[in-house]
Structure formats: C-alpha cells, structure tokens
Amino acid sequence: MAIATPDERIVRLTCTHDCPDACAMLVTVRGGRAVDIAPNPAHPVTGRHLCVKVDRYLERVYSPARVLHPLRRIGAKGEGRFERIAWAEAIDGIAARWRAVIAEHGPAAILPYSYLGNMGLLTAFGTMHALFHRLGASRLERTICGGQRAGLEQLVGAPCTDPEHMAGARLILLWGMDPISTSVHTWDIVQRARRNGARLVVIDPYRSRTAARADVHLRVRPGTDGALALGLMHVILRDGLEDREYVTRHTTGIELLREQVAPWPPQAAAGTTGVAADEIVSLAREYATTRPASIRHGVGLQRAAGAGMALRAIWCLPALTGQWRDPAGGIANGRTVRSVSVDRLMRPDWGGPAPRTLNMIQLGRWLTDPELTPPVKALFVWGSNPAVIAADQTRVLRGLARENLFTVVHEQFMTDTARHADLVLPAPTMLEQEDLVGSWGINYVGLNPRAIEPAGESRSTSDVARLLAAALGFDEPLFRLSDAELIALALRESAAERAGASLDALRAEGFRRVGPPLGAALHADGGFSTSSGKFEFASADLAKAGLGALPVYVSPAESPETRADLARRYPLRLLTLKRHHSINSSYGCLPVLARAEPEPLVEIHPADAAARGITAGQPVRVWNDRGVVVHRADVTDRVMEGSVAVPFGHWLQSGASANALTSDRLGDIGNGPTFCDALVEVAPAGSPRNRWTASEAGR
C-alpha cells in the first residue's frame, strides 16, 4: 500500500462482518472518497492479507445498487417497487403505526428481528435493542448461529485456549470448519503449525477447500459428530491412553464416563458415522499420544438436532487426554465479544415482566400461526435478511407477504426481505459509521472510526434508535448519547478496558488484545468454570437442566437411520454450505460473488446422480415436504454418496434457496438451528418424480 500523501489520509478500521477474524484494516481516503482498502500489518492475526470478500469491499461501498434514501412501498410485497420519502415522514409513519398496533394488540405484537450482518457493537448489540425493550415489544431469541455452543457454555462454562496458540500444536483437529473460506486467518495459524511439523485432521462431511489440503479428512455423516467423539473416547479408555494423573487431579466422573462410552466401540461408531473403524482407532491413538493437540470446531457441526451434546462430547476429549496442560492444547476459541458491557446499551432490564420471546429460526411460524396471541403485526429488521437466512423459507415468505404485517427494514441493499417491506431505511457501510468491534474468534477488540461520510441519507442503527425514541416520546438519557458516548459507556470498567482496551488506547492504536496472556495454559491446573473447579465429565448442572449429566449421542431428527419412513421418499441427506465469496447472504448482489459464482449449483455424488439420470450442468430439483429448489447440477465427489449440498445464502433472484428445504426445528441445547438435519430427493427438472406444491405439503 502506498504511503499517504498530503491530500489523503489513512484510517485504521476493524471489519464488522460476521466472521471470527475481525480483521484490522487500513483505508486510504482521498478527497473524501475511499480509494483503497488493505490489511493492517501491525495486527498479529490479520497480518498481510484480507479475505476475498473484503478485498473488494469498496465495490460494496460505491455500488450503484445501494439504498441511499428512505423508501415507501408502492407495489405488491416482494415486487420491489418503492418511492422516495423524507426521513421525517418515515420516522413519523413508523411511530404512528406502532402506536396503532399497541392500541389494538399490545406492544408484544411488535417484533424486532436482527442478527450479525454488521457485528459492530452499536449495530448488533446497541440501543435499538433498548428501544424495543422500552417499548415492551416481543423479544427475539437470537440463536441461529452457535446457539448450541452458547447454551452449553451457560451450563458448564467455556473451557478454551487462545486460537493463536494453535501455531504451537503438533496435531490440529478442525471439526466442522472450513477456515480457508470462513476464517482465513485461522488457516494462517494452522499453516504456521504445519510448517513446524504439525498434522492436520479435518472432520467434515464435505471435501471443502480446507479438507482437500488436510493430512487426514474424516467424512462423518451429517449430524453424527457426537457418535464420533464417543467412539474416540471409547478407544482412548479401552487402550489406557487417558492422562490418568490429569484426570485424577482435575476432573470428576471418569468412571461414569467409562460406562457411558462402553457401547461405542469403533465398529458401532463406524456404523453410525460412516467413518471407518480403523480410522477412528487411528485418530483416537494419535490424538491421545500427540501433545499438544488442539481442536478448533466451527458452526458447521452445530446445525443438527444433537449438536449441543456433540459439542459436549468433543469438549471431554482434551480433559480426558490432558491436552489442557499445554497452551496449544485443548479447545481453541476466542471470547472478546463478552469483554464489553453490552447490557448497558441493550438494557434487557427494561420492559414489562416476562416479555414474550420468539426464536428467530422460527420466524415463518410466528408470522403465519393463526393461534399466536397477540399476532405479530409489526416487524422491524436490521442486520439480517430473514427471507433468505431463516429456516422453512416457504413459510417465511408467506408471512412476509401478509398485507396486514407492517414491516420496516434498515438495509444497505434491496434484499429479498427489503423487497417485502413497507418502509426501507438506508443503512451505512462499516466505512461510514463509528463503532466498536469484538471478535468472536480471536481475542482482540478494535475501534472502527468513521472513514468517510455516509452515502446518500444513510443513518446508523443507533441514530435510527435515537430518532424513533424521540418520536415515541422516550426521554431516557441513553437515547441522547452520541455514538462515541455509547462506545465509551460500553467500555467503562469493562473486562476489555481492564485489559488495556481503553477508548484512548483504541483511538491511538486501532486495536488491543484483551485475552489472557499468550503462552498461558489456562487449565493446566484445572480452574474450570464449574462449582468444583474441575472438568466434570458428569455435570450436575446439565442434569438439573434435564439434559443428562453425561455426554450422550442424539441422533439426527431426519436421517435414513432415524426416519426410515421419510427416507423412502427423501433418501438424501442435505448439506447447506457456506460459500467462499460471501458471508451468509451479505454479498448476494455484488460483483465479487457474481463473478465467482454466476449461479448456485447443487452438488451431488456421481453414484447418486447416475441412479437418477442426472448429468453435470443439467437443471435439477431438490425437494421435500417443505419446499423445492431448482439449480443446475454439479456432479462431484466433494459430497458423500447419499448426500446433496445446496449453497446457503443465495438471494431469491436465483430462485428459492437452501432454506426452502430446511426445518425450523430447534436443536437439543441452546435452541440452535438444524439446517443440516433434513432429508431431500433430487431429480432432473420436470421429472414427474418430483412434483411439489405448497398445498400438498400442508402449507
């Protein structure tokens, strides 16, 4: 990157995308216009490169498709016809409609819907939440990504080691994660370890970019990760490979665990997971005898009915083998999202007693359930695109199309959700607003100052909250604080500030590390977040929650083994995959995705394609009782035989997307999603085998 000249300046930013990396960036601004975006080489994790998405971020900032002014719908919902209006008219209109809804149905008839389309503190965890809490609106349970892990952490704590320590590991297990596409700087750390002799094992049903480069790729059937972990523990205990000294001093319940894993010898685990018995034995022995060994799991395995218990079983592995003795051993995970005081901004204590809570994964049922009392009459969406990312898409779209649903969407682009809105409010990009960013994958907090003026009439989420609060007559001082004052409030006396991430330090340096000291083995002498201070193989807290004290295998809700009746009609397991050139649905209309993926493709194994008369490039239908998707076929052994992969996050301009096929069923712990826990069938488009209508599916 060129050195700044007198007529330009370089601004230090932190990426606000929903990505573990939270990259530190340098943006060159000349004459008020951003002309270059580059990595900040001073950041120990970001280093010298960004991902393929953010490399092209200025295409997003200056896209001609940006929503730049408040818009009011003048056509049918979903049609995308709008007219420009003034901000004052939009805000007054929202306040008037909300008052009318409250007068007739009460405040619970209003539902806020948001997620991490922008992970900045003020956008994702800011005062917009306080506004809805003050209003008394229904609350949203936001568990669509990582809900199982979050739920498990609340019950048994969150044992982890710093992800940067993985560079010192001798063995790395990437479990349900494709970091080359979804966390490229995690991949950098893995590569450093491999250059020092570490071996890489990837556990994934799909041969991803990462799996293709691994030393070992174990292709586990979707939703059976828990059985694999139990099988590994069976071998470790059977062969006496546990770290007996560590287990004796720093764990409890080992004899109960021994009984629990007894029914999972390699052959039994192989029959459930599809991983060969000798591969299970080999991995168990290598993991138990290689030190340090690090496990980094992603959200990929957290999309099945039994994902919570699968994580529980995986977390037992490093305690059983004493991997926590070493800084580079154990479970690698970042924790900085928890290091700032978000409750000061969100004010969950506001509102009436026991407000109604609706899970975001199940939006379709809440918008279409005639028995829901009160019904959802107003929806406000920011930082999300539920028309694409929520499960059971057919029902979601039917709900969004309701003429008696007043929908407001705060967005940068005319997404599929925005096309169903009554009002669309223009949102800024991360270059155009001040914010604070805590990574969920590494231990850094970064400041995100405004680099350029907002395009058009774009306003930040916190600014919209201030406008709506004033229109509704809310006079709490919180709604009068500026963005800088809100950031200072969240940092004040927080764990991040105590670790050195004061506002002054962040303004001076751009980012600060806020995790435990590098080189520390946090659980070498126990110190787990349990009442005993030990790792509890048999957890009383889990038992009290009704989940059982010990890790147990929870089978997929939909699989040929668990639903033979359903599998007779829909024999293929569904995978909904993240893509290399997009983050969820965030790049659906941008050139970086269109150039790389001109159209979405259905990936099907050659044997399954041959059995159905499908050839490469042929239009095919993928369907089940919930919906149908039509894309061209990619015949490839990247997917396992008996599975089919549909890319996640494509906008509806390409036709129905993967979530037309998924269930809004919730997982076993933490109410997480089950996007990869579904059965489907595939056939050439137009084949009489695959006729499907919403009425036939009981919709």
CATH architecture of the largest domain: 3-Layer(aba) Sandwich
The average pLDDT is 94
* CATH class category of the largest domain: Alpha Beta
- Round the Cα radius of gyration to an integer and report it: 25 Å
Sheet with the most strands, sense and barrel status: 6 strands, mixed
The helix content is 25-40%
What does it look like?
This protein has 699 residues and is of the alpha/beta class. The protein has three domains: 71-145 and 338-438 and 444-513, Rossmann fold, CATH 3.40.50; 150-334 and 531-544, Dimethylsulfoxide Reductase, domain 2; 564-690, Barwin-like endoglucanases, CATH 2.40.40. Helices cover 30% and strands 18% of the residues. The protein has a six-stranded mixed sheet with strand order 5-4-17-16-15-6, covered by helices on one side. It has a six-stranded mixed β-barrel with strand order 22-26-23-25-24-27. Helix 9 (225-238) runs parallel beside helix 14.
